[in-house]
Amino acid sequence: MTTYIFSDEALMMLTNAYLISVVLLIAASGIGLAVIETIEKTGER
């Protein structure tokens, strides 16, 4: 028994994966920048 993925479903899955990865990348970079800023602030004291 083989299951086929139609092209529109595959395109939706790829689009969702791309959008999720973009959101996660932006969130991770924001967290990273906040951590770096915190480290720099504590180093100045």
Q: Could you describe the 3D structure shown?
A:
The longest helix has 38 residues, at 7-44. The chain has one helix and no strands. The protein has one helix spanning 7-44. The mean pLDDT is 91. Helix content is 84%, strand content 0%. With 45 residues, it is mainly alpha-helical. The radius of gyration is 20 Å and the shape is rod-shaped. The protein starts with 6 loop residues before the first helix and ends with a helix. Keywords: Membrane, Transmembrane, Transmembrane helix. This is Recombinase RecR. The chain crosses the membrane at residues 17-36.
**How many strand segments?**
0
Q: How far apart, in Å, are the first and last alpha carbons?
A: 67 Å
Gyration radius over CA? 20 Å
How much of the polypeptide forms β-strand, as a percent range? Answer: under 5%
Alpha plus pi helix count: 1
Short descriptors:
45 residues, mainly alpha, transmembrane helix, rod-shaped, transmembrane
Brief synopsis:
With 45 residues, the protein is mainly alpha-helical. It is 84% helix and 0% strand.
